[in-house]
Amino acid sequence: MLLEVRDLHVEFRTRDGIARAVNGVTYGVDAGETLAVLGESGSGKSVTAQAVMGILDTPPGRITGGEILFQGRDLLKLKEEERRKVRGAEMAMIFQDALSSLNPVVCVGDQLGEMFVVHRGMGKKDARARAVELMDQVRIPGAKERVKDYPHQFSGGMRQRIMIAMAIALEPALIIADEPTTALDVTVQAQVMDLLAELQREYHMGLILITHDLGVVADVADRIAVMYAGRIVESAPVHDLYKAPAHPYTRGLLDSIPRLDQKGQELYAIKGLPPNLMHIPSGCAFHPRCPMARDVCRTDVPPPYEVSEDRASACHFWRECLDG
Amino acid sequence: MPDQPYEPGGAIAGTGAGGAMDLAASEGASLEQHPSAASGGRAPGGPKGTGPFGPDASAAAGGRARSLGSDAWRDLRRNPVFLVSALIILFLVFISLWPSAITWESPLQCDLAKAQEGSRPGHPFGYDGQGCDVYTRTVYGARTSVTVGVCATLGVAILGSVLGGLAGFFGGTGDAVLSRVTDIFFAIPVVLGGLVLLSVVTSTTVWPVIGFMVLLGWPQISRIARGSVITVQQNDYVQAARALGASNSRLLLRHIAPNAVAPVIVVATIALGTYIALEATLSYLGVGLKPPTVSWGIDISAASPYIRNAPHALLWPSGALAITVLAFIMLGDAVRDALDPKLR
Amino acid sequence: MAEPVLEVSGLVKHYPLTRGILFRKQVGAVKAVDGVDFTLGRGETLGLVGESGCGKSTVARMLVSLERPTAGTIRYRGEDITRLSGKALKAVRRNIQMVFQDPYTSLNPRMTVGDIIGEPYEIHPEVAPKGDRRRKVQDLLDVVGLDPEYVNRYPHQFSGGQRQRIGIARALALRPEVIVADEPVSALDVSVQAQVINLLDRLQSEFELSCLFIAHDLSLVRHISDRVGVMYLGRIVEIGRDTEIYDHPTHPYTQALLSAVPVPDPEAREHRERIILAGDVPSPTNIPSGCRFRTRCWKAQERCALEVPALAVPEEFRRTTGPAAHDSACHFAEDVSIRRSAPEVVLPPEETREDHVNGSA
């Protein structure tokens, strides 16, 4: 395993109490594999990624338990300085909002080149040359001429390409992409996702794709981890999960999205609201919204039941769910 | 605001207007209930999950009904900076309303024989160069300072927010003219302007000074009010009200003003402190208030020649001034922290 | 088509670009909307799709008279509403209401829910006598699926989905004939989106509303709309019934757009070929001559740069009556019967989709 997150717990101390954002998340990514972490806002999918990257805001955030093994080392036990060396060089992150992640007063060539100057000790000229190469690689037309442009002179899709270039600059082993295409239009979204998938194949990187879009996941992912209220409720290879979900939440999500290729009648709607992280329901956190809930769901937290060799579901009644 | 809970049944009975009216009211109600009854009939049996929510009803019910204002107040009550500054300000307001509550003499009663004498029983702050009791004068000085500060701030806030708010709301030529005018006013150095303008005034009341402060102070608030109105105006709820056909006055009073007022309050509170300091500065320079008005600025000015022999006569009024200004600025800071939703 | 409620023709909105502080000089214009025509029938839902910046939101704002068009007419029941003001405008506004995108900024945080939903009655007091209003507000809350006891709460006590319900209740208060919904669910979580969409769907039939539904999500638009218009750079490039647009698109932009939508079905990804458009949408200040899509179109020829294609049934389909015979602004329109893929692509076997159809039933 390239990256293994084991029983991670993260909480946020706020004025109104403690928000338990991540409550025992376990997942792993292999080199060359794409893991999609699917969840709604507040499910803890981004917080987990921030903890892995080591960019969690502390305070108010706090990692209260678990380990993050990256190439065999527990990142949580590293000193901040060693951690910084891992960040950027061995794992990189792509954010949703490219405009605010790029420095508006430094031209993109210098921002890309800086990676080489800082981490590889290159001279300015070599770094600039590498920057142009990178921009070519992410297919920015006219890279040579545009290397001196500033971020605001690029369109949203191009900026996201620059972010990708920055992420792959030092050829990291793992890339975490947090909603990389959510802010983009459909046609541009397709371009960017294609590029990301291609680069991943080329460099044999591990990719964690954090998203709420079931369509994007189906297009690129190998495995899926579905998160709800800070826990992984189902993890499965992508084909199995779409064919037959083993958790009522996953089933609800799949049924509730309108389809492009058919005009449905009424959409299935999961009743109720995502839980408040300050007061996560007892037992299975999904039970107040679950059509299959029974007494045991209110009292017992479901462990990840093994559905098949590489598949798990945190539902007491996964068998019934699987059978539909 | 029609905020009072209005109980349909109770109100109808309360009017005692008679059966006809009750009947009409209940009929109107039953007519109105029709669509909801229809939907109510559909929701439970038919489509999944379109009925009223169970769980989120309880989630929302968990929170008490509270406005943003009371939220800010909850914040403030727990803030020690606010508590200290509010206590100081309450005390200042108290002594400026009833200075005789803690003094025994008239501030104008002086005895040259006691000039520059130090502290003694009954006269804890000693005497100044004219033989007046420093304690009494310091207490009475609070009145002018607070009067000038409060009146100038009120004038500035009202004039500034009305002009700035209207300019921001309507935009166009008026806005462009106002912006240039504020630029011109910003270019006037305050102390120099005061020296020039106030030196021709002979009145001994506080009003010319207040008038001068309003004249030079409104552009600051006007700018803030304008920016704030422009920001709030872009919110969809203003657009929604406009799409409903709301008049400009409704938009301004009901939707924009309550949401745009916070930065004005904050800046005005901080400005209040600086106006008190400005009054003292102008009085010190001899163009602000003039004796026999009692003011910290005048006392500081009068005591400065004797700083070597009688430093106490200078220190007490300056100390009072410094604490007062600080209290208002601290209050403004605390209010800003409480009102700024980004800091939550 | 049913009797038209709204007829939009030649709608144009240009925002002038000026330079200079004192002496403003116009140096150009952002052509946000550049000639849009459509009609909205009674009880019909028209979906308007397009990428960001295509002008769909500006169209919405002009329909509810929040913006004044630069040119063109919007006829509501035969009367042009673009030049109205004062009382006449207020009367029209009663009948055309809007649901906003962002439920967090569309409700005044300083007003209670009761005041927010009751405000339409204060502005139009003739609709409901004073004594009736509270009851009407509670009824509306019930209609949109909220507890009527919530009238004294403030918006910040509600979640995004609940706030959007409040916004819908406000739009319904005056019993309008037309609802313009601008991306009403794009700010909501996936599991809550379906609730709000179902609500809109139900209300539309219950109140016999005509609805203009604006969104960037093509699947969503298909789900809720009777007819669909595709916008590109300030114009409608193709418009027709939902099956005509989704199953027989004739405009290359529509085809590209449809093929780019990710389908939540991993089985499809091996079979599906996508049209990946090159480049970005041109700036609305500098719209290409002729066909505005030609800079990104793989079919573009010389004629496309010279002649503006009209939005009409393309010549080759004019004599047919099939689903391809719908308005499309392309010189080289061709019927590509796609489900989820590009031209000349083997459709994935039907069974792969069957599971989900059953699952959702």
TrEMBL record, chain A:
It is found in: Cell membrane. GO terms for molecular function: ATP binding; ATP hydrolysis activity. GO terms for cellular component: plasma membrane. It is a peripheral membrane protein. Keywords: ATP-binding, Cell membrane, Membrane, Nucleotide-binding, Transport. It comes from the Bacteria. SMART domains: AAA. One of its GO terms (biological process) is peptide transport. It holds the Pfam family ABC_tran. Residues 5-254 form the ABC transporter domain. Its main location: membrane. Belongs to the ABC transporter superfamily. PANTHER family: DIPEPTIDE TRANSPORT ATP-BINDING PROTEIN DPPD, OLIGOPEPTIDE TRANSPORT ATP-BINDING PROTEIN APPD. This is ABC transporter ATP-binding protein. It comes from Streptomyces aurantiogriseus.
From TrEMBL, chain B:
The chain crosses the membrane at residues 80-98, 146-172, 184-216, 260-278, 314-335. Residues 1-62 are annotated as: Disordered. Its main location: membrane. Residues 42-52 have a biased composition (Gly residues). Residues 53-62 have a biased composition (Low complexity). It is a multi-pass membrane protein. InterPro entries: BP-dependent_transpt_permease (IPR050366), MetI-like (IPR000515), MetI-like_sf (IPR035906), OppC_N (IPR025966). It is found in: Cell membrane. Residues 142-332 form the ABC transmembrane type-1 domain. Keywords: Cell membrane, Membrane, Transmembrane, Transmembrane helix, Transport. One of its GO terms (biological process) is transmembrane transport. One of its GO terms (cellular component) is plasma membrane. Belongs to the binding-protein-dependent transport system permease family. This is Peptide ABC transporter permease.
UniProtKB/TrEMBL annotation, chain C:
SUPFAM superfamilies: P-loop containing nucleoside triphosphate hydrolases (SSF52540). One of its GO terms (molecular function) is ATP binding. Keywords: ATP-binding, Nucleotide-binding, Transport. GO terms for biological process: peptide transport; transmembrane transport. It holds the Pfam family oligo_HPY. InterPro entries: AAA+_ATPase (IPR003593), ABC_transp_ATP-bind (IPR050319), ABC_transporter-like_ATP-bd (IPR003439), ABC_transporter-like_CS (IPR017871), Oligopep_ABC_C (IPR013563), P-loop_NTPase (IPR027417). Residues 6-258 form the ABC transporter domain. Belongs to the ABC transporter superfamily. This is ABC transporter ATP-binding protein. It comes from Streptomyces aurantiogriseus.
